[in-house]
Each structure stands twice: as structure tokens, then as C-alpha cells.
Amino acid sequence: MKFKGIEKREEGKFITRYDIAYETVDQKEKIYEIISRNRELDSLEALNGKKPDSVVIIAVDESGERILINKEFRMAVGDWVYNFPAGLIDEGEEPCESAKRELWEETGLELYEIDDFIGESYSAVGFSNEINVCVVGKARGTFCPSTSTVEEIEPKWYTKEEIRKLLKTSRFAARTQAYCYLWSKV
């Protein structure tokens, strides 16, 4: 595919929709629709992104025996979905700061130990160029309601056995499902 150009189609409060023009190997035009957090995409370099937009928090409890999963109402699907705590990186924040802030805002828990960062990945590569970074660590504290009235979140600690059962009966965000499947098998 040969990149030909990008056109802004609609700007929303949080995302902007673009049409990207490509030329296929048989010299035909292909228009691909995407959404982006970037309001000013104007080149292939801008489309590729330079830094993460959001953090995903993968946390276990102090014993390391339970993993934290949010059951949250997701408006895009009109239903409850199991997902890791996650959120946008605010201007000037480093991912570890964002992870601590987002975890506290969504669950009331403290991310007191960061063990690792999983390299950058795309949230939904089929229709968005949003980049996340996963922060892996340990959390503690008492669950509190989300600080946001527009988020309905029910955080909970799960054992490996509970996760294995939940994976068979409930819908997950893809990254959370994949990680939890592997975590529950170890």
C-alpha cells in the first residue's frame, strides 16, 4: 500500500474521524476510515504517532494471587465489559503518573509498585491509531466509586480460578481477555 494522503472528516470532543487514501498494488484507490485522538493528522508520520495516548494498568494484589479487573459499562456496546483499568495520559504526564492517577480515579486503589512496562501497542488497530502503554504492578487499598459520574465501574480482585470461569461466560476487552487467559494458566 502506498500512502497518498489524509483528510479530516469530522471533529468530536474526544476523537476525530479521518479518511486515509492509499494506492493498492494494482493501482486502485483505497479510502480507509479511522478515528484518532490527534486532531491534526496531516501526514503519514503524524498517523504513525510519536507517543502513547493512554495507559492500561495491569495490577495484582499484594500477595500476587489476585488480578484487578473492572467490570464497566461501555457506551459503545451498550453493555458491561470486563477490562483492565485504563485512561488517557494527560498533557505533561509520564505513563507511570497517569497509571497511578487513573487507577485511583477508577478504583480508589494505590498503585504502589510498578514492576514493568509492556511496550506500546494499538488499542484498536482496525480503526484507530491510538497507542497505549501497559503499566504492570501491584495495587492496594479499599475500593471506592469512580470519581467520574460518566463512568460506571465495578472493580474487583479475581483469582485464577475465577478468571478461568469468567472468560467462558462474559465479554472482555480483547487485551484484557488475552492477558487474563495466559495469567490464569500460569
Please describe what this structure looks like.
This protein has 186 residues and is an alpha+beta fold. Helices cover 22% and strands 42% of the residues. It has 4 helices and 10 strands. It has a 4-stranded mixed β-sheet with strand order 7-4-9-8, covered by helices on one side. It has a 3-stranded antiparallel β-sheet with strand order 1-2-3, with no helix packed on it. The mean pLDDT is 96.
SSE blueprint and pairings:
Elements: E1 2-11, E2 16-23, E3 29-36, H1 44-48, E4 54-60, E5 67-74, E6 79-83, E7 86-88, H2 95-107, E8 110-122, E9 131-140, E10 153-158, H3 160-169, H4 174-185
Parallel strand pairs: 4-9
Antiparallel strand pairs: 1-2, 2-3, 4-7, 5-6, 5-10, 8-9
Structure at a glance:
This protein has 186 residues and is α+β, with helices and mostly antiparallel strands. Helices cover 22% and strands 42% of the residues.
